[in-house]
Amino acid sequence: MVDRKDIGSWLSGPDTSNISKYPGERLGLPESGRGSMARAGRRIVAICIDWGLCYLIAAAFFHTNSTAILGIFAVEQMVLVGTLGYSVGHRIMRIQVRKLDGAPAGLLAGVVRAVLLCLLIPAVIVDADQRGLHDRAMKTVLVRR
Length: 145
Fold this sequence. Notes:
Blueprint: H1 4-11, H2 40-61, H3 66-83, H4 88-93, E1 95-99, H5 107-118, H6 121-124, H7 133-138, E2 140-144
Antiparallel strand pairs: 1-2
């Protein structure tokens, strides 16, 4: 005969003991403030700032050619994120790209992240810690400064 304890395990719902309380907890980052995960709002505004600046440059020199805009954006991301750890938009929004161990992102990470970011799909697929596939591929994280 079926007993209540036999069906109680699935009635109580899934096991939530290993689900993190906030993005970045599994990575050892603080919940808020300096060093915490940069949330979607800051990221979106930063990329809009970067794209807008690249649009202005392309308008001035390339008659707003869409390929030129994408190329300027890619170069900006590669050079600035690879060397400084942030683009112009990141700097304005006070966020920074760094490795999971806290080290600077590096030039290779800047190049790979930029290529994947330009493909768009890897950037919009995120994990529980709000890291896109481009960040996961290079073991980087976008944090608040």
